Amino acid sequence: MKSVSFALAGLLCAGLFNTAAAAGKTGAEVGQSCVMCHGENGLSSMPGTPSLAGQSEIYLSSQLKQFRDGKRHNEVMNVIAKPLSDAEIDAVSAWFAQFEVVLKKR
Ligand code: HEC
Question: What is the CA(18)–ligand 1 centre distance, in A?
């Protein structure tokens, strides 16, 4: 019985923590930890690191959830996505998706 209530307490805490994180962090705030690799506003100039700016919100959030849940494999992104809640993933995906990328010939 004791272990059941401990498990429940753990679930409750995890739920509270996720809600607090979601309420406290906007997409722009989460995004600040991404731009050093993915570039300012998600426009990457680093080979091997894709641009996030202007990609679809649905694509970004599904890729982040796959990294977090170990379904898409990349050493760096698996570690970065691990602590993100669903709400943080949705918020940061919407933030990067809001930018419009305009293409022109070099
Ligand atoms: C230390 C560098 C680094 C940081 C910091 C970083 N990323 Fe990444 N990210 C990468 C690399 C490298 C890849 C390419 C992975 C691959 O080849 O599969 C990637 C891939 C991605 C992809 C897949 C894009 C696509 O087109 O399929 C998404 C989405 C993503 N990152 C989101 C984020 C978000 C959101 C953050 C911040 C919370 C973040 N990344 C922080 C290096 C980084």
Answer: 22
CA of 105 to the centre of ligand 1 (A): 26
Do residues 25 and 87 make contact, with C-beta atoms less than 8 angstroms apart?
A: no
Closest Cα to atom 2 of ligand 1: 37
Q: What is the pLDDT of residue 34?
A: 98
- pLDDT value at position 94? 98
Condensed to tens digits (0 to 9), the pLDDT of residues 1-57 reads 455 555 545 444 444 444 444 455 899 999 999 999 999 999 999 999 999 999 999
Sign of CA pseudo-dihedral 87, 89, 90, 92? positive
Q: Name the burial class of residue 92, with classes exposed (0-12), middle (13-18) and buried (19+) by CB atoms within 10 angstroms of its CB.
A: buried
* 50 CA to centre of ligand 1 in angstroms: 7
Ligand 1, atom 13, residue with closest C-alpha: 49
